[in-house]
Amino acid sequence: MLAEFSNYGVKVVPISGDVSDFADAKRMVEKAIAELGSVDVLVNNAGITQDTLMLKMTEADFEKVLKVNLTGAFNMTQSVLKPMIKAREGAIINMSSVVGLMGNIGQANYAASKAGLIGFTKSVAREVANRNIRVNAIAPGMIESDMTAVLSDKVKDAMLAQIPMKEFGQAEQVADLTVFLAGQDYLTGQVVAIDGGLSM
Question: Which biological process, per GO, is one annotated for this protein (predicted)?
Answer without folding.
Answer: monocarboxylic acid metabolic process
